[in-house]
Amino acid sequence: MKIVMKHILCCLCAFAVVLAAAGCSKDPKTSTAAPGTLPVIGPDTSLPAESTAPSSTAEQMMPSTEKTTEAPATEAPTAAPAPTEKESTAAPTSPSPSVPDVVPDKTNFVTEGTNGYVIVIDPGHQAKGNSSQEPIGPGASQTKAKVSSGTASRFNGKAEYIVNLEVALKLREELLRRGYTVIMTRTGHNVDISNVERAQIANDANADAFVRLHCNGSENASANGIGIYYQTPSNPYNGAMHGEAKALCSALLNHMVEKTGSRADGLFERDNYSGINWSSVPGALVEMGYMTNEAEDKLLQDNAYQTKLVLGIADGIDEFLSTRKPKNK
Questions:
Q1: How far apart are CA 240 and CA 237, in angstroms?
Q2: For the chain, N or C: smaller number of CB within 10 Å?
Q3: Is 288 within 8 Å of 214 (Cβ atoms)?
Q4: pTM for this one?
Q5: What domains does the chain contain, in order, with CATH numbers?
């Protein structure tokens, strides 16, 4: 009997040990499984309590079946990338209006604009000068050569008349883009048009401004800067135009110096230029710089610098005409 009781007690102890082991395995705090390797039994105490709550009221109301049938992340629509500089979402702007080409070696070449103002551009000189004489002013007995071939670079021999036309053609394009009607006294080098005839083109057009483009020269190699010439108030041919011409020249010089950073050589009043004396409209003889100054000569032949000159001239014309109505409307 003692043996039987002893056997029963041993069985009961073994059974108690089994029950105790089973109870310990259900306690989540004693789980030694690495995170993510097995399902967690009960709440995950490693996270704050609020992290187990739904993120929104809408999510709380969502049926559990919908939560388990969400589309895979790879199928979810992605946000459109931010537009790059080349992919601007702004409405496209209208392209700059095309500028009609010139016809080579023409005189009095007209291209119509839209703003009502007429600008005559005179690229000074030409390939071959004409030493035949013409009166220096209307009714004058004093005469001058009709036109010379101008100066040239002291350093590479490039002729002034070439530089003058290069700038003039750029100026034509800029003024046309701004809406002006532009008349070119010449569009090439192989023409024969005198200074009086050039002024007459401006007169016949009743131009709002007559801009004559030249390059300067001097025995003094250090001479430099932009200078502009017009008539004196006592000019016997067109002194009454002095005030308008001075206003135009002042505006041109200020803006050209501002755009180029060049030195202002000055405003000069002269009555010995036939192209000035024959003009009955506001005119300016612009000396864009000295081809006898090495640094300035290099600039005058530089495309980017020519563009700066052009923008200065165009801005000067804009300022001059901003308070004046078109003469041809």
A1: 9
A2: N
A3: yes
A4: 0.72
A5: 110-321 (3.40.630.40)
